[in-house]
Amino acid sequence: MNHDTATTPLTSQPLSPADQMVDRIRIASLDNLIAALPEVVDEAMQKVIPHWYTPELAASLAEGIAAQLRAGVTA
Fold first, then answer.
1. Banded model confidence at residue 9, pLDDT cuts 50, 70, 90
2. Does the residue 62 lie in any domain?
């Protein structure tokens, strides 16, 4: 996303510098959350549902959660 030409979804007006900064922070926070998902999901599955845990399932769940989070950003 080019933040210099970003627009608001409803008005297509350019975002103010403050709104652009809020958008950058939101995206950075989401990126950090998505980056942490594989390790967090893996650890949680081992602790909470060890009888279902496999590394492949944990990775698949983390990928699915990340995809849903990304889709929510673009929705």
1. low
2. yes
Indicate the pLDDT class of residue 27, thresholds 50, 70 and 90: confident
Q: How many domains does the chain have?
A: 1
- 70, 71, 74, 75: CA torsion to nearest 10: -150
Q: Is residue 18 part of a domain?
A: no
Q: Is the model's pLDDT at 12 over the cut of 50? A: yes
Show Cβ contacts of residue 55 under 8 Å, excluding neighbours closer than 6 positions: 42
Residue at 21 is within a domain: no
